[in-house]
Amino acid sequence: MSHFALEVDDISKRFGGLAATRNVTLRVKPGERRLLIGPNGAGKTTLFNQIAGDFLPDSGAIRLFGQEMTRLPTKKRVRMGLSRTYQILTLFPNDTLRHNVALALLGTEGGGWSCWSSLAAKRDMMARADDALAAVGLGDAAGREVAQTSYGERRRLELAMALAQKPKVLLLDEPLAGLSADERETVRALLEHIPRDVTIVMIEHDMDVALAFADQITLLNFGQVVLEGTRAEVIADPRTREVYLGH
Amino acid sequence: MQFWIIQTLNSLAMGGLLFLLSAGFSLIFGLMRIPNLAHGGLFMLGAYVGAMCMQWGVPFWLAAIAAGLAVGALGTVLEGGLLRRMAGNEQGQVLITLGISFIIADLCLLTWGGDPVPLDAPRMLRPPVFLAGFAFPGYRLAVLAFALIVALGLWLLLERTRLGAMIRAGVDDRLMARSVGIRVSRLFSAVFFLGAFLAGLGGVIGGPILSAYPGLDTDMLPLALVVVILGGVGSLPGALVGSFLVGIIYNFGTALFPDFAYVILFLPMVVMLVVKPSGLFGRVTR
Amino acid sequence: MFTLSRRDVFKTGIGVSALALTGRAVRADEPLRIGFLTVKTGPLAAGGIQMEQGMLTWLKLNNNKIGGRTVELMVADTNGVPATTRTKTAELVERQKAHLLIGPLAAFEALAVADYTESHHMPTMGLAAFDEGTQKGAQKYFARPTASAGQASHAMAAYCYSELKMRRMAVIADDFAYGHQQTSAFLRVFEDMGGKIVQKILPPLNAPDYGTYISQIKTDLDGIFMGFAGSNGFRFTKAFFEYGLGGKIPLTGGLTAMDEAILQQTGEDAVGIMTANYYSAAYDNAANKAFVAQMNKDYKADPGYYASGPAICGAVLDAAITKLGGKVDDPDLLINTIRSNVVENTIRGPVKFDAYGQAIGNIYIRKVERKAGHNVNTVIKTYENVSQFWTYDPVEFMKNPTYSRDWPVAKNLEN
Amino acid sequence: MTLRGSRFWALMSLFLIALPFALPSDYYLGIATHALVLAILALSLDILIGQGGMTSLGHAVYLGLPAYAAAWTMQNANWPPELAIPFAIAMGTAVSALFAVLSLRARGLGFLMITLALGQVMWGAAYRWVGLTGGDNGIRIPVRPPVLGIDISSVRSFYVVVALALMVALVCIWHLERSPFGACLRGTKDQPKRMNMLGHDVWSIRFLAFVFAGFWGSIAGVLYVFDYLYVSPSSLSLPQSAEALLMVVLGGAGTLTGPVVGAIIITVIKTVVSSYVDRWYSLLGLTFIIVVSVMPRGLVPGLKAWFAPKEGGAR
């Protein structure tokens, strides 16, 4: 069918008089690492929100592996293989890390309607939650409450939750935001190790890590795609300087 | 024809009364997100204090101001002493304001007894006004006029003063208000005072129509809720339009569909909440 | 705390064993324990407080004795909530071992405890005016020395038709059972005599304002009958005058439309309003004069509907228990004596009971007069020996539905 | 954790078994019964508040409506209680499903207002629809009928029924709390958007929680009418809803014992303390203010924190 893992086809979105997204087209191949860059307010997160289904575009289409999902509710998109992390941490602070990952697993695997059996007694699910945590180096912390972990650990928990869902396409919204140099290196290594059957679209401001990671880069400004290309192409293009530095 | 004219006048007069009741409620609700369930109690307390002042010989309008100030002061104390610590704790606020309303109701009963206490309108406003062959109470027209004056005053306060600008900023976005250096706690005290003042004032102005009696608080609070839900939380035009809307629904509704009198106000409230939870003029969505 | 619970255990033990032996045998010098159900908190407290004042005043005037026995009055506050009334009744009966009950205030409260008091064989002096209590729902251990909801309305209707020569009238009442029963009773007698009720308006009990209803009142009426409770009669009358209708259409009313409790507040607007009641603070007999004087002295208020009821209960009980020589341990004997007695000198005049436990007595038509800046309900006509069934045959009467919103059907409404 | 769990159940069972022996008379046992019926109502409301973060001010609907349904079918249609009870519970639950659809349009204070408005509509209907409900006079049941041939007319036997019902409710709600569904429900309370992004159907989770609350509320409603043998509009009024809310918040939302403790305290103030303190109404108000000021999360979590500081997160 389609050769693209994620296909954003000419979508636009207006809020009142303000155009948040203007005719954005994005075609991401399976296994690709795509980086979205652009100054604050360029519409990167707004674009993510539309891909995730938080709100619907006014026009255009969004497809996942050729399957139409423009108007599907978020939960269906997740079941189709889309996962996402947030720039601002949204975790369940009074629960354990294991519990957090279990909620992610319940989201894709179902089983969340069971009202009688104990969640803690779902050994299989708990084991997989622990595996997911171990994969991001949090194996020892599985039983701790989120409130008792460091910021860097929470960033990794975000990643563990998304990866536990075995996504086909993963949207990462600034996974390095607010991390120290050491932590950044840890997360970078984790990202490197994500297998290539997961397609990744990432928003990131840390150019050192991000540029090295990305296959293709898309530059957004004022809700529009300014240019798209490989690392070298985008760095070389004068429009990049223009967008970031303003003339 | 006469039916329509006189019920329209009734609706407007009641709308005016409801505006005096709910403007303060809306203000507090909108800015501080506090569902002040003691608002009915403050309104009733205003009516009793006004009646007491008038028994001491204080003229009506002065009594209204005095009751407003007294209730406003009480509101400020309650806000600073109890509610401020509950910021963000919705259930806590509900519980505390309910507790306050219990105490106000009980102490009013203890102080003024159970019998209704009448409040007399100023003498010159008492006789009915004759309009095209039928009589309409002069005082109710005065209440309408007074409500419009209060609305205008509040509008000027909100739109033309620095305090008003801060309040509006706070209603729209509290974080932003804080970040531009508004001292939110003092602003909250001021708004709570204003809201409670309006409740106390409204109690006295409404007194000649409603009088002061035990249960006035629980009769009035749901009306304030309906007004605010219909008009939209934290919006002055919303409170005004909501008040007149409730006046119209109540007067025409009970006249045309008397069988629905007990639910006439809550059905529109349900419909509004289901269709447009933010109300007609609501800026606050959740 | 500990001692309290131990004493309770002890008491319970005595109570249980005593009950097992002799029913309710207790020492003779023991006080007469009266459970008094009233409302002292919440929106219905106005009437409840007056009830208590009336009871205390009567006891004070009678040296705190009924039938020669010292009274231990156990006052319970029901908050006007049926569930609480039920609990409080259980407290009075089971924990405090009341010999008899007086109250409660509201009809729905009385209905909530009716089955309980009956099954516990607890003699109860009812005060709430609801027709069921002494008609189809009549109970063995129940006696009401005041009036059913419709009892006074019947007389008012007769007075309006015969004496005031009214033919076209409107009725307005609170939209709840007590209001319905008052207006339906009025409607029945008035229309049976030949009059017409052309308009029936039922504002909700918690109506914030009567303006909208007053605007609907027809202008070509001979009179209006009001079936209001609490402070609503006062609020309606004030609004009636505000809308310029005062003096244009005569106002009449039932038991509580222009009660003494709201009479002063209504001021000059009240003058001329005629209401029917089993009592008036202006009724002229020695018992009432003393009662009113004491009420004035202690509470600076004229007794009305709520305060008078317990005082009448006091007199009725006094006569019955005196006759029994102070013995109140047999509930059947007590209630039968109460119901078979004729008491001449209560503050409402003579009282006797019908076969259903409802008092037969005078119904007064009272007209508000202003004397030295003070409103009084002057008695202008006395209907003697009025039964709750008026002049109808009780059996025939009770074949019909109980007075309600829908019965009797108002056939002459104009719209 | 399991140890603590089993200790809780042992204490709770002991408490319920000991109560009839500890209380000096049937009168007090009757009050205990009233309190436990309301405890079930408070527990049901706590599914919404404590687990789901949805503050309802109209929960008395699920007390009053099934009470009316049971009373009406038994008194006016002569249904046996074996039929009337399931019917009443089904009806309360069905209405909760309908009201959930309407209420879940809004969140936070909007939700509170809409539940309040729906409650007022039901109250108005009960008050005004005299032909069906008897209006303010309500519906009486002369004697408590036997159910399944078991005589429950005495105070003691009915206490056993209520205590058993409370235990069943506690066990079910305890299971609910620990279950995957409970975890999801609490997730929607803290982070609804994230739950959505994790693939959960947030609306349906809330809907189901609302229906659960309606179901357990309806059980309380049926017990209520069997307890008082009377139902009137006051049992689905705003004060009754507010009282249920107060019980939950006073005792501590999101805990199993909190709503039970709240129900007991408020019932005791209303029925026992009010016999000794004239101004008990003020005292009730003062209690709310003090408890909320000193222990914003309620008595049970507050006391736990008091006695075991720095344990955190205990439920």
Describe this structure in words.
The complex is a heterotetramer of chains A (about 250), B (about 290), C (about 425) and D (about 325). Chain A is α/β, with parallel strands linked by helices and about 250 residues long. Chain A has 9 helices and 10 strands. Chain A has 2 domains: about 1-80 and about 165-245, P-loop containing nucleotide triphosphate hydrolases (Rossmann fold, 3-Layer(aba) Sandwich); about 95-165, no CATH class. In chain A, the strands form 2 sheets. Chain A has a 6-stranded mixed sheet with strand order 6-7-8-3-9-10, sandwiched between helices. A 4-stranded antiparallel sheet of chain A has the order 2-1-4-5, with helices on one face. The N and C termini of chain A lie far apart (about 40 Å). Chain B has about 290 residues and is mainly α. Chain B has one domain. Helices cover about 75% and strands about 5% of the residues of chain B. Chain B has 11 helices and 2 strands. Chain B has a two-stranded antiparallel ribbon. Chain B is globular and about 60 Å long. In chain B, about 60% of the residues are buried. The model of chain B has no long low-confidence stretch (mean pLDDT about 85). Chain C is α/β, with parallel strands linked by helices. Chain C has helices at about 1-20, 45-60, 80-95, 105-120, 150-165, 175-195, 210-215, 230-240, 260-265, 285-300, 305-325, 330-340, 395-400; strands at about 30-40, 65, 70-75, 100, 125, 140-145, 170-175, 195-200, 225, 250-255, 275, 340-345, 350-355, 360-370, 375-385. In chain C, the strands form 2 sheets. In chain C, strands 7, 8, 9, 10, 11, 12, 13, 14 and 15 form a 9-stranded mixed sheet that branches. Chain C has a 6-stranded mixed sheet with strand order 2-3-1-4-5-6. In chain C, helix 5 (about 150-165) runs parallel beside helix 6. Chain C is globular. Chain D has one domain: ABC transporter involved in vitamin B12 uptake, BtuC. Chain D has a two-stranded antiparallel ribbon with strand order 1-2. Chains in contact: A-D, B-C, B-D, C-D. The interface between B and D is large, with 42 and 44 residues.
Oligomeric state as shown = heterotetramer
Number of strands of chain C: 15
Which structural class do you get from the secondary structure elements of chain C? alpha/beta
SS summary, helix count of chain C: 13
Question: N- to C-terminal separation of chain B?
Answer: 42 Å
Helix content of chain B: over 70%
Q: How would a textbook summarize the main sheet of chain B?
A: 2 strands, antiparallel
**Helix/strand/pairing class of chain B, anyone?**
mainly alpha
Averaging pLDDT over every residue of chain C, what do you get?
Answer: 91
Low-confidence stretches of chain C: 1-26
- The total tally of domains of chain C equals 2
Main beta sheet of chain C: strand number and arrangement?
A: 9 strands, mixed
Strand content of chain B: under 5%
